[in-house]
Specification:
Enamine deaminase RidA, house cleaning of reactive enamine intermediates, YjgF/YER057c/UK114 family, 114 residues, YjgF/YER057c/UK114, 60s Ribosomal Protein L30, Chain: A, 25% helix, globular
Length: 114
């Protein structure tokens, strides 16, 4: 069974299929923040959405990170390591060269288990 939550104009924010939760691309609202600040804001939003879907950051399976500022990967990783315990790290990819909206440094797409 497929369950969709938070319908937007062109997509749903969360889609559940069985015990798997897919969360579409999240970006920071405050574009004045640096990379670490944008990452922290995204992680906060992600925790809220995961909770709404009945799961948590400890159950993340995969994270795809699209960056418009690859040279700031260390700042993203700093926020990442403060947010997640190493034993719960999911698989991930950090992809540079993304063309994101003005001021957006990073976008995060996730898959989690229930």
């Amino acid at each position: 069974m497929i369950t969709r939550h938070i319908q937007g104009k062109i997509h749903h924010r969360i889609v559940e299929h069985g015990d798997t939760v897919y969360i579409g691309g999240l970006v920071a609202t405050d574009k004045t923040k640096d990379m670490k600040g944008q990452a922290q804001e995204i992680f906060g939003k992600l925790e809220e959405l995961l909770a709404q879907a009945g799961t948590s950051k400890e159950k993340l399976l995969q994270v795809m990170i699209y960056s418009a500022a690859f040279d700031q990967k260390d700042a993203f990783n700093e926020a990442w390591c403060e947010w997640l315990a190493p034993e719960t790290f999911p698989v991930r990819a950090y992809i540079g060269g993304a063309e994101l909206s003005p001021g957006t440094l990073v976008e995060v797409v996730t898959v989690a288990s229930k």
